[in-house]
Amino acid sequence: MNATSATPASPHTADPGRIVLLTTTHRVAPGLLSWPAWQALHDADRVLCADGAHPQLPYLREAGISVERTAPAAEELVDACAGGRTVVVVATGEGEPALTDGLARLAGSGRVSMPALELLPGSYDLPGARILDLVQVMDRIRAECPWSSLQTHQGLAKYGIEEAYELVEAIEEGDRDELREELGDVLLQVVFHARIAEEHPDEPFSLDDVAGGIVAKLIHRHPHVFGDATATTPEEVKEHWLRTKAEEKRRTSITEGIPLGQPGLALAAKLASRVRTAGLDVPLPRGEGIGYELLALAARAEAEGTDPEAALRAAARAYRDAVRAVEEAGAAEGSEGEGA
């Protein structure tokens, strides 16, 4: 049907009706539609959907709504609304761009009495819903990618370390675009490891288990937010955190849980922090060599509220810039000599 077959515009034309384009999201369980969406579906003269496998269809039929599987052209849809009828189009995942473009062309022609067009979101993404997309993509990659399908926790460990350092660098450089990208790379490592963990023959766990564990931990360690405890200062919050953590871990030494494989300055600062927080009087060991000097510097930095690793990185970046400046100056002198 071409555009000229649609109802021509005329001051005496009957009510052109109403088109409702109903959109949903695959990130919300099918059938969980808003009340306005259910009202529009029940009140419609016709409900159309081009996708016979649309996840909402079984729930609409269960609710007594008859859905026609068809993909009308814009002109056909306008004609179907003539006489004041309401037609609801259950949009596919692509959002029906061909249909909406066709309706826009008809409206722009001025030759057609257009029905009212309403875009009605039937469901909205919740905050964090895009994580579901990442889980789906990771499932497919794990199943179909020759490299990803062979990876193990051990094989991926080095990438987790690299991504964490790149995230720190983005933070210290103040690059917002890099920060967003590096956070995504770190998140990928979490999802990838959780996906691999699902395949363990004896002790499998999923991303939901990972998220559930950290949720429970955060709630337990924030009694001033989720319980009756009171904390008005960061110091009181830290006290709650350390006390609940100690109850959970039941450790016999404050040094337990400190990863010895972390960079040396960070390790020294962490040990000093644990000692200071516990109120212990532990003199620094005496010894000869740069290691003991660095230990003392790291402990001093921690006591002053400075991250020794971050401080050293900042100084190293300044050193890098000085090296580049000398290199550039040398290159410029060489160019002048060649020109002479």
Question: Overview of this structure, please?
Answer:
This protein has helices at 35-43, 57-62, 74-81, 97-109, 130-144, 153-173, 176-197, 207-220, 223-226, 234-249, 264-278, 290-303, 308-339; strands at 18-23, 46-49, 68-69, 86-90, 116-121. It is an alpha/beta fold and 340 residues long. Strands 3-2-4-1-5 form a five-stranded parallel β-sheet, with helices on both faces. Helix 11 crosses helix 12. It is elongated. Mean pLDDT is 89; it is low at 1-5 and 7-12.
The biggest sheet amounts to: 5 strands, parallel
SS strand fraction? 5-15%
Task: Tell me the total number of β-strands.
Answer: 5
- Rg over CA atoms, rounded to whole Å, is 32 Å
**Overall average pLDDT:** 89
Strand order within the widest sheet? 3-2-4-1-5
Ranges where pLDDT stays below 50 over 5 or more residues in a row are 1-5, 7-12
Question: Structural class of the secondary structure composition?
Answer: alpha/beta
User: What order do the SSEs take from the amino end to the carboxyl end, as H and E?
Assistant: EHEHEHEHEHHHHHHHHH
